[in-house]
Write a structure and sequence with these properties.
Elements: H1 11-28, E1 30-34, H2 35-54, H3 57-66, H4 79-91, E2 100-105, E3 115-120
Helix pairs in contact: 1-2, 1-4, 2-3, 2-4
Length: 121
């Protein structure tokens, strides 16, 4: 069965997990995940930052298609896209890649999985 990856997830479940985690990473700035998930998340988020650096309407629509919509109670405005295209794009306007960093931490208690902290540089 080619649609099931090495961890037993289908491709749609894996893609949905990456969408959720990347939205949370953009909002909070760092996440604690397993090493395998961190590497996949790194390859998912970095092209989004490159899109945000371009800043045109087409890039915004491509990013909206890849990220979850998260709103405030007060307004219906998407705060993930707004944060990506204002704060993060301005921070990395002179950088040509390598926007995220994986920092290894102690293994998870219980199943001894390798854990990392993924942050923006």
């Amino acid at each position: 069965m080619s649609y099931i990856n090495d961890l037993g997830n289908t491709s749609t479940k894996e893609y949905g997990k990456l969408r959720d985690l990347s939205s949370q990473l953009i909002l909070h700035g760092k996440l604690v995940v397993t090493e395998h998930t961190g590497k996949k998340l790194q390859t998912f988020v970095e092209p989004l930052v490159t899109l945000a650096k371009r800043g045109d309407l087409h890039s915004r629509r491509l990013a909206i298609a890849k990220l979850r919509k998260i709103t405030n109670k007060d307004s219906d405005k998407d705060i993930v896209i707004d944060t990506l295209f204002t704060t993060i794009a301005d921070r990395y306007k002179d950088r040509n890649g390598g926007y995220t960093r994986l920092i290894k931490i102690n293994p998870r208690i219980g199943d001894n999985a390798k854990m990392v902290i993924i942050t923006f540089v």
